[in-house]
Specification:
With 352 residues, the protein is of the alpha+beta class. The protein is 27% helix and 27% strand. The two termini are 30 Å apart. The site of flavin-adenine dinucleotide (FAD) has 35 residues, from strand 3, strand 8, strand 12 and strand 13.
Amino acid sequence: MQIQENVILAPYTTFKIGGPARYFCIVKDQFDALEAYEFAKEKKLKTFVLGGGSNLLISDEGFDGLVIKVVNKGIEVLKEDESRVLLRVASGEVWDEVVRFAVTNNWWGIENLSHIPGSSGAIAVQNVGAYGQEASRVIESVTVFNKDTHQIISINNQDCKFAYRKSIFNSEEKGKYIIFNIDFNLSKIPAPVLSYRDLSQKFTNSIPSLSEIRSAVIEIRNKKFPFPVEAKNGNAGSFFKNPILEGRSYQELKNKLANSFGASAVEALEKKKFEEGNVIKVPAAYLIDICGLKELKNGGAAINKNQPLVIINHSGKATAKDVLGLAEKVKEEVYSKTGISLFFEPELIGFN
Ligand SMILES: Cc1cc2nc3c(=O)[nH]c(=O)nc-3n(C[C@H](O)[C@H](O)[C@H](O)COP(=O)(O)OP(=O)(O)OC[C@H]3O[C@@H](n4cnc5c(N)ncnc54)[C@H](O)[C@@H]3O)c2cc1C
């Protein structure tokens, strides 16, 4: 395995932003992983595991350590019966190709997660979710390489401690593992999830097939924000997480909106909010919109008008400083007008 020096990271991210990695290597199996961590240990380097770079903002100064890019490939059926299939997916597989494969085979459970960029390993990290489906509902277990013990172990769904955009991999055990495979438990029995209005509106008279759902999700996503393929309009998807509120905090938000923007703002919020058990998910996009921030720009970075949760590298030359400056401004304004603290969804790498 080759370890390169001073590799510019921007091309490895969907934002197309980021300075150099002091060291960079490509890992395809546990032997490469072992070599990478021994190199880092010897040189006393920090390490960072990179997938498709679609949930990151890397600083203009880059990362002063070893970046480990995971590229192992393979999709394998481990077990199946009349109703279910257990699918093992290697981390380096492009996630959307995995969704397409499942849809083509008539396996249910990940179709609403269509058209999300990135690699399959990262799906477990932030418990990727969209349009009412979440990775945690179909992940059976995750196979990982422990960077300290150098052992390969399997972590079951419960021990991943999945929550909204959260797992042990981005919280209590962050940086401890390389994920090499994920086992997905998919259904052969139709189980469309149409709880999100955008999606249900498309199928008022009929029960859709898997491929119809996938096409609808792709169409909805393409209308909202650009799928990042080139430098221009690069992005990392939603930059802000949707706030999750309990009853009292939600009532406080309504009072604050009524004071700042009038009763119609509260009516609109009531229509847009999403109840999940005894908590309420508030669309951060609506808060950004009502605070009048949809047109905001900072250097080469801009809020995406059709879906203001997204910050885009609209000039193709935005710096990480432009993006972060814009995001901080949005956070401050939303807090001062609504009392809600927004949290960033992409991970910030190489910032002090
Ligand atoms: C246009 C667009 C739309 C998006 N839509 C959604 C959406 O609807 N829902 C959603 O949840 N997310 C969405 N995202 C965010 C992003 O695509 C997902 O979080 C994706 O799973 C990140 O995958 P990645 O391979 O690019 O990970 P990276 O950005 O490379 O890494 C993200 C994190 O995962 C870790 N990681 C990556 N691979 C491994 C591995 N093999 N082992 C251990 N750790 C690893 C990294 O260290 C880092 O902490 C979107 C992004 C874009 C650009």
